[in-house]
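Example 3.
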Amino acid sequence: MELLKNPAHRAWIVLMIATVITWYLGEVGAAGTTSIVAMLVIAFVKGRLVILDFMELREAPRMWRILLEGWLILVSSLILLAYWISLK
Amino acid sequence: MQFKSQAVAKPYFIAAIGLFVGQILFGLILGLQYVLGDFLFPAIPFNVARMVHTNLLIVWLLFGFMGGAYYMIPEESETELFSPKLALILFWTFLIAGALTIVGYLAVPYATLAELTGNNILETMGREFLEQPLPTKLGIVVVALGFLFNITMTVLKGKKTSISIVLLLGLWGLAVFFLFSFYNPVNVVLDKFFWWWTVHLWVEGVWELILGSFLAFVLIKTTGVDREVIEKWLYVIVTLTLITGIIGTGHHYFWIGTPEYWQWWGSIFSALEPIPFFAMTVFAFNMVNRRRREHPNKAAVLWALGTGVMAFLGAGVWGFLHTLAPVNYYTHGTQITAAHGHMAFYGAYAMVNLMMISYAMPILRGRAANSNKSQVLEMWSFWLMTVAIVFITLFLTAAGILQVWLQRVSDAPLPFMVAQDKIALFYWMREWAGAAFLIGLIIYIASFFVGGDEKEAA
Amino acid sequence: MPEPILIPSAEAPPARRLPGDLAIWFFILAEMLAFAVFFSAYAFARASHVEEFNLYQQTLDRNLGALNTFLLITGSWFVVLAVQAAHQDKGPAIARNILLGWLCGGGFLVVKVIEYSAKFGAGISMSTNTFYMFYISLTFFHFMHVILGMVILTVLWVQARKGVYGSHDAHGLESGAAYWHMVDLLWIVLFPLVYVMR
């Protein structure tokens, strides 16, 4: 598959599939801890692909990679914390 | 001085400093009235002293902005000012109008002043910071329009740089938002809503653009860093300022009868308002560290760094302290606000004007920089005033925290005046810090008259 | 179709380089911080209104939300292709891909307007309840960023048509592209958070 040599193409395919999964989880009415964690993981993977392959930070100075990936981790953790509080 | 017409900035700067002295004197009177309620009563009641203190602040800053613009724009545009004569006519108009207004405040009761000046024709008076009588307000508009015409025409006939465009944006914004001072609906919610369009969008919006462009100009001149680099930073700062500042107006809409979502919008966006100020701090230090030359005017560089730091502390940190709706629920209208106001105005706008004056005045007086002796004195005044304002802020913050506690949080809340009595100690300390500030200001003025003979090699 | 090699080859490890301008990255970080605060505010406000949020979340149109995710991701992908084309000096492909990215953004706006008109038509406003306040605030704030991103893409398109970008200089293009990807990145978090997670 020549096409898959381009990281942008690979990223696009994964992002599309991931979006379908999130949408499907919504359609079946997934709720609760497992589905929340699953959706956050999916969002994290998607965000990371955008950062690394679309924004092309894979080869950028480490600080910038850390800053943007750190943002993803921070936001997902805060959301997770808030949802965890709401489940108690 | 590259262009002859830049000289019109000089009277503006002198007037600015003169009015600054007046502001501080009334500040000291006011501070004393906090603890000795009948001091100078009935000659100068508290409300009048306060009005004079705040109005003088605004007027001297405007003089500084205009002077700075008159100095900066010819140099940026690489052409003489469109009309130096108009600039001088407007100077005297503004100075006389300003002086008459202050005399009016002091000579007759405010209600009489309102009657005398035709407030019944168009009711605009009686609102904090916008107390000026109708003729003064109209005068401000005329002066501002004349000034903007002069500056804009100069930019149009000369070179257009990012710095001058940002300055124009700030100055036009200043004029446009002042127009809301003429809108005074009977509905108090609407009145307050639009009142902030002048007050907030000035100090947390368009004035920041003026601040940014002044800072960028002086940094280019003193550090020799590439214009492109400085402009890039300026763009980022301007965009961040506008995004956070405009929606940040919401932090004034918490408890005045506006819809509840303002509590979220106001909290979130004003929580981000420190970012542009932080960017300014980083900007100032970064550029000075990357300097390509040692400019002889060290004092101006010190003011530039100072305004970067103090604006961030006063506007950014002290603003953030009480900007979130749940916190502001308790701190609204207490001495916390006063603490923030003092440090923010000094750190951002007083200091940036002093920076511009410090950079431009020696050149206007025919030298690249003042003598070493004079600069040392100026740096002393920098530290004295800055440390004094830090202490004023800290004492007012302490007073504010106590006030919130005694009057609002505690199980047995005290009445306002009783709480005020209990925090009198902090008001006394604030007054002493204020006296130190005045000494700093006197030293600052003295620095203009010291060691002018021994000329520095440019 | 022969695909040029974009993955750095082993014999010449390239220096670590930040694509685009440093200033745009500071700007992006500040924007992302703003959204981080907004996202957390949503999540924590939800924690004290769980029933309300779960109930009204059901009224949102997940299909349109997912469609918009497709549009933004694809729009981002086109812009990546434009940057790659610039590095390989494939002139016409630069402008074409920017235009395709722009059209995806336009599609996003159309879908969003359809979604909004259904909601506003039903009399929903920011004052209806906390959930709708957040729904409208967050999506509208993001909406404005899509518009800004499209303005930037317009500038890039005009420049690309003039032949400004190529392997010698893709600085401006990379800066604008980075902003456009940020708009995408934010939606990737926003969509599951507001439309799906419960």
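The two ends of chain B are 12 Å apart (CA to CA). The domain at 199-450 of chain B is CATH 1.20.210.10 (Cytochrome C Oxidase; Chain A).
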